[in-house]
């Protein structure tokens, strides 16, 4: 019992490192993603099965709307710094809720495409930019990777719960409309959390100075950041195909059925939910560029190997390896960006990073689809594996450039955290 009490005390101390606002945001992310995942995985099925839109047209709609929304992330980053994190988070969640409610209420394809474009520009990407900036505001730098990992656990939890709820709703209403409406309503519940509980965290602005290119002159002049973004496109090329081209390549090369793909997705989400925080906790003090290299290799080789090997236990193991790569890629990359960004420009840096992130989402399906059609699925995923290995080779070369000198304040904070950890009582 004394040992159990000690473990509970340690858990409380660990949780107490992060402020209550962070935990409120993490809980809200779980609510938001539950609503999103009740609707998002079924959009293409609804458009093709219920509205009679061809698969190629759906791919064109989704790919072009993402590309069209890229410039808005520059605006979103500036708004996050100027107006604050909270209003931009609310804008992003409202964009998602509007799309899913429209899918449940509207039959006109042209109007639905307008809502899809609206969400691609002002929905999830805006939320990603502002919430990343808020997490960086709320957490000490030495625990920031863990903080991003915790929010990723919330994302994965929503990816598990949302589809399960949608499955139960679809039994009663196979038209998808009830699932879309409930998903949009759950997104609106997060809006209430933002409005009633979440406080603004934007650092107080000092004396205003002229900012070239609206503040983005600093971002564009940061060679360390730009080099990191270019290298990150290599693993993002594979990451952007997980939910789009990868299942098509698996079906063509291995002949797997849709229900088998759904079970693989469940394995992916459960792996992230269970392992995300322990993995990040284990590697939090490791070199970020080496961790990014591991992430790139795991994503590239995992996806490529899963298409190349005969379907079976090896496929599942390789997909878990992909999940592990994503567990590293998302929180580590966000931490690197937050570390490179001056506090007063954190929103702009996160907006630029969101643009790079979405570029991977766009280039993965567009180039990956062309590669599958012209080369074949196995050859196309040999290229995915090679891009992942290219990132694994490139990130270690950036170690010296991407290791900013710690300030005296940061060094003191890190030393204090290490001393506090060593002095925790053991009963």
List the defining traits of the structure above.
427 residues, mainly alpha, Growth Hormone, Chain: A, 2 domains
How does the overall form come out from the CA principal axes?
A: globular
Percent of sequence in beta strands = under 5%
CATH superfamily of the largest domain, called what? MFS general substrate transporter like domains
| Strand segment count | 0
Supply the CATH architecture of the largest domain: Up-down Bundle
Helix and strand run: HHHHHHHHHHHHHHHHHH
* The top level CATH class name of the largest domain: Mainly Alpha
Low-confidence stretches: 404-427
Number of helices: 18
Distance between the termini: 10 Å
**What is the average per-residue confidence, as pLDDT, rounded to a whole number?**
85
Count the domains: 2
* CATH domain topology of the largest domain: Growth Hormone, Chain: A
Oligomer: single chain
Q: What proportion of the residues is helical, as a percent range?
A: over 70%
Alpha-beta classification: mainly alpha
């Amino acid at each position: 019992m004394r040992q159990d009490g000690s473990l509970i005390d340690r858990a409380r101390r660990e949780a107490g490192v992060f402020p209550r606002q962070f935990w409120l945001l993490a809980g809200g992310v779980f609510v938001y993603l539950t609503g999103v995942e009740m609707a998002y995985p079924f959009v293409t099925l609804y458009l093709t099965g219920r509205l009679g839109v061809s698969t190629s047209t759906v791919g064109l709609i989704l790919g072009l709307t993402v590309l069209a929304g890229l410039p808005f992330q520059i605006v979103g980053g500036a708004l996050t710094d100027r107006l604050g994190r909270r209003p931009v988070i609310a804008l992003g969640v409202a964009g998602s809720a509007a799309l899913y409610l429209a899918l449940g209420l509207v039959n006109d394809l042209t109007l639905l495409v307008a809502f899809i474009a609206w969400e691609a520009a002002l929905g999830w990407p805006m939320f990603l930019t502002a919430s990343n900036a808020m997490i960086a505001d709320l957490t000490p730098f030495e625990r920031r990777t863990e903080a991003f990992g915790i929010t990723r656990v919330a994302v994965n939890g929503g990816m598990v719960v949302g589809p399960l709820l949608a499955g139960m709703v679809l039994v009663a209403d196979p038209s998808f409309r009830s699932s879309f409406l409930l998903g949009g309503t759950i997104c609106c519940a997060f809006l209430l959390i933002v409005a009633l509980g979440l406080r603004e965290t934007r650092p107080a602005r000092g004396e205003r100075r002229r900012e070239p290119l609206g503040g983005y002159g600093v971002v564009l002049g940061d060679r360390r950041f730009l080099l990191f973004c270019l290298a990150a496109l290599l693993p993002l090329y594979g990451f952007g195909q997980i939910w789009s081209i990868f299942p098509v390549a698996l079906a063509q090369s291995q002949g797997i059925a849709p229900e088998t793909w759904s079970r693989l997705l469940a394995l992916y989400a459960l792996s992230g939910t269970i392992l995300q925080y322990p993995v990040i906790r284990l590697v939090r003090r490791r070199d970020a560029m080496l961790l990014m290299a591991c992430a790139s290799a795991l994503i590239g080789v995992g996806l490529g190997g899963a298409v190349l090997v005969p379907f079976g236990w090896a496929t599942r193991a390789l997909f878990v390896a992909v999940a592990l790569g994503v567990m590293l890629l998302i929180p580590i990359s966000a931490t690197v960006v937050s570390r490179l960004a001056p506090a007063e420009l954190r929103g702009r840096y996160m907006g630029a990073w969101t643009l790079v992130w979405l570029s991977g989402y766009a280039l993965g399906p567009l180039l990956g689809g062309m590669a599958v059609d012209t080369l074949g699925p196995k050859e196309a995923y040999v290229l995915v594996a090679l891009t992942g290995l290219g990132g694994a080779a490139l990130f270690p070369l950036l170690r010296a450039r991407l290791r900013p000198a710690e300030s005296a304040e940061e060094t003191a904070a890190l030393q204090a955290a290490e001393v506090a950890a060593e002095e925790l009582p053991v009963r």
